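Quick start: what a row looks like.
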Amino acid sequence: MSALSAIDLRQSRRAEFRSLVSERAIIVLVRAGRKTARRDHRQLELTPARIGILEAGAPYTVQNHPPEEGAYRASALLVAPETIERLQQEVPARGDAFHTTGDDRAVAAFERATAALSDPLLPERLRENAVREVLLWLAEADIRFGPPQADLVTRLRRLLVQAPDQGWTTAAAAGQLALSEATLRRRLAAEGTSFQDLLADIRMSCALGLLQTGDLPVGRIALEVGYSSPSRFALRFRDRFGLSPSQVRRPQNDRNGTELARIGTTPGP
């Protein structure tokens, strides 16, 4: 998985997605419509031409609101924890993750970073430098990511998201984390979760990203996230998000799907 990537999404149907967690920090620029993201009794609201952030490892309730005519559209930069850590060593810690900015210079830097990340021939150090410029403009606007999390749940999520279609077992994941299976089970239980719950959530979140940022058939998406049965996948998806996979792409009062475009290689909320 690339440390940095960019995505574009379109969504015609208004929907609310609860407890979404990203393994990477996200910088969002809304192009049409409105995005709200709630966490810890606070709300981030983004309108067109404004930039905000979603922190990694934190559960958000996200709503994407299409405009009266057309689809909700946004672009996002997905940033690895290491990139943020390197910047935080140089820039004093200040700012608020719930601030937004519409500064033309920050938006221009965002567009340059999007172009850089969509160029597969550009060296990684130049790709990171383009994202770094965006982070610096955000810091100037008092928008700042908190310290990247390194707890066990975060480490496990980062492992599972790399291959959600793999036939993961608790023992296999524990081995990758240099833990015994019993220790992993015990520590997850202490966090109020289980391996199977985390795996299911990772798979559903990845599926949501694929639906929002690509045009793969639903059956193919089911396979991409580890389900051989599309009907079982659709049932699990509805249980998790309250609507079917096809409804994510379908306008509220229209049976036609929505046009989706994708940049880069990694989906996000």
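That is the whole record. Residues 255-269 have pLDDT under 50 and may be disordered. The chain has ten helices and eight strands.
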